[in-house]
Predict the structure.
Amino acid sequence: QVQLAESGGGLVQAGDSLRLSCAGSKRTFDTHTMGWFRQAPGKERDFVTAINWSGRRTAYADSVKGRFTISRDNAKNTLYLQMNSLKPEDTAVYYCVARPGGIGTLADDYYYWGQGTQVTVSS
């Protein structure tokens, strides 16, 4: 099984920045598309962003374009999500995800999920 571990969440004010990290195995980072979903209380899990195995292709939800940047360092077995200009509506549990295929935007596209890290943005 692929194990993913998120870190970097916290409580910040609107307009602040956070960087989330996701650690996994080398085999995962060498071969898998990876990404981030988020889930606010009482809501479904929504696609945020994803990046293919080589880092040459990315996709973003319209709600985060221009503010969030996904990147990966396969040599360090680490995925990142740089979040700038955070808004209260970004408050959610953020999940690192992986799949052995191309970029998908549905939760069911992804086989592997981390346990999540809480991001709370106050106004």
Summary: The chain has a mean pLDDT of 95. The first helix runs from residue 26 to 31. The two ends are 39 Å apart (CA to CA).
